[in-house]
Design a protein that fits this description.
This protein is mostly beta strands. It has two helices and 41 strands. The strands form five sheets. The chain has a 27-stranded mixed beta sheet that branches. It is globular and about 85 Å long.
Length: 495
């Protein structure tokens, strides 16, 4: 019996080692070729000295044998590209094992250095080289870059530092708050893009003017702050808009919200104006704080605020006048008029079809109080919130919420507007503050799925505007004349 058992055991060992040996046979054929999911990785477009998004491709071993790749490396010794192979980053990886009929991910990123080529378009090229079995294959790397004006509030971005970097010691945190300090009048021109790292703080009564055609790109969590007695002027034109967005230009980021923080017109900032601007893909488009004089905190005209993870416009006891605005697709509110203030909107479209989360909030929120730091309720009068010839619509059942402190009232007026409201929550039909209102009729935008909020030919919003209101805004956001038979919202339909 022992002999039989010993024989069986020996046979099992032979089978085991035979299998293990066969499993690790390496392909030694010089005719064998790896295959790749991409023959070229394209990075388009990258700001100089700003890391790109990570790109990846797959390497396939389609043979029936395991394979060891002797080396995977960048062709250039001083390359702007970096690779990551099997969790290890750098410029080269050695002895990379791929099982039969398996694959491997290769990741790459790039930093484009202008090398003094101010204002020029740049291109960087390299290759990833695969050496195995005395043969070589490659995947090309191509990155397009553009130079930019950098406004840096981070102390660790040495390449971009200037005498405008400043700091304040925060005693409670035992740390310094760094910012890019603008304390004299400045103009940002359209000669090349402007990239903001960290916070840009306009202070000491200075005015920052952003001129027509300028493109502003804000890094993650970056903020543009306008301090007390200071001013922001955004001066785009119909044919030469100002664009403000995140600094990731890859296709993937074009519809990603929350890439930067906000434009913050802080309490006491004065005479701020925004005209012909596109503000997109941030957290809060415009945060407008308390007014300290009779002048508007902000006059905004002919502008688009789109795809904010939080709010399109946040007014806190502010004074805002808006004309020909499109505020669309916000994760919370398109427009929050918080803790009172004074507001007037004419020919504006508030359209909320945000689809990156399950939005529970309405497009518009209006209230007149807040809870302070010690838990006490503070009241601020809402002296005016007027909406004329506007559209307020979205994919939630209720797109307006009123929140008045008990015993107080909200002073609002909706004239010739199309509004979506849950009539079980609030029914305005007999309310004198809703005049000539279209309730809960789809405005029939051309295609809200692709963010086209112009009106269809059978929209109920056509020709419904009040001429007296249109006289204050005789041309729509595209420059079309509207007074004779004005449509609601910021777009006049032209047949």
């Amino acid at each position: 019996m022992r002999k039989v058992f010993s024989a069986i055991f020996t046979i099992c060992l032979l089978i085991f080692f035979t299998c293990k040996k066969e499993e690790h046979i390496l392909n030694s054929s010089n005719n064998y070729i790896l295959t790749f999911s991409e023959d070229t990785l394209l990075f388009d477009t990258v700001f100089t000295t700003v890391g790109s998004a990570t790109r990846s491709f797959k390497v396939y071993n389609n043979s029936n044998n395991d394979l060891t790749i002797n080396s995977i490396s960048l062709a250039k010794s001083n390359s702007p590209f970096r690779i990551n192979v099997d969790g290890e980053s750098g410029s080269v990886a050695n002895d990379i094992f791929i099982r039969a009929n398996d694959s491997l991910y290769i990741f790459s990123e790039v930093t484009v250095d202008p090398n003094g080529k101010n204002g020029q378009s740049l291109i960087e090229q390299d290759s990833i080289i695969f050496n195995y079995n005395n043969q070589t294959q490659d995947v090309d790397l191509v990155a397009w870059g553009i130079d930019a004006n950098f406004h840096c509030g981070f102390p660790d971005y040495e390449k971009h530092q200037s005498n405008l970097l400043d700091s304040i010691y925060i005693e409670e945190e035992d740390d310094y708050y760094y910012y890019y300090n603008i304390n004299v009048d400045k103009s940002w021109e359209n000669n090349k893009p402007h990239v903001v790292y960290g916070d840009v703080w306009v202070r000491n009564g200075a005015t920052l003017t952003i001129n027509a055609g300028a493109n502003i790109y804000l890094h993650n969590n970056s903020t543009l702050l306008i301090d007390e007695n200071s001013t922001l002027h955004i001066k785009g034109t119909k044919d030469n808009l100002v664009t403000i967005q995140g600094d990731r230009l890859e296709d993937y980021y074009q519809q990603i919200s929350g890439q930067w923080d906000r434009i913050w017109l802080t309490a006491g900032s004065v005479d701020n104006t925004v005209e012909y601007a596109i503000i997109r893909n941030g957290t809060i488009g415009l945060h407008v704080d308390s007014v300290v004089n009779q002048s508007p905190s902000l006059i905004i005209e002919n502008s688009i605020i789109n795809n904010m993870s939080g709010l399109g416009i946040l007014g806190q006891g502010a004074h805002i006048e808006g004309k020909n605005l499109l505020v669309s697709n916000s994760g919370q509110y398109s427009l929050a008029l918080n803790i009172g203030g004074e507001y007037d909107f004419k020919h504006c479209t508030f359209a909320n079809y945000y689809n990156l989360n399950s939005r529970q909030t309405p497009s518009i929120f209006i209230n007149n109080y807040y809870e302070d730091s010690i838990g006490e309720i503070q009241y601020r009068e809402l002296s005016k919130a007027n909406f004329g010839n506007c559209i307020i619509y979205g994919d939630n059942p209720n797109e307006i919420l009123f929140d008045a402190l008990e015993g107080t009232s909200l002073n609002y007026l909706f004239e010739n507007c199309l509004i979506k409201m849950d009539l079980s929550v609030y029914n305005p039909e007999n309310d004198i503050f809703f005049q000539n209102t279209i309730l809960n009729e789809d405005p029939l935008f051309l295609d809200e799925n692709v963010w086209d909020f112009k009106l269809d030919s059978i929209s109920p919003a056509l020709n419904y505007g009040k001429i007296e209101i249109a006289n204050f805004v005789p041309y729509d956001i595209d420059g079309n004349y509207r007074v004779n038979s004005p449509d609601l919202g910021c777009f006049e339909r032209i047949e």
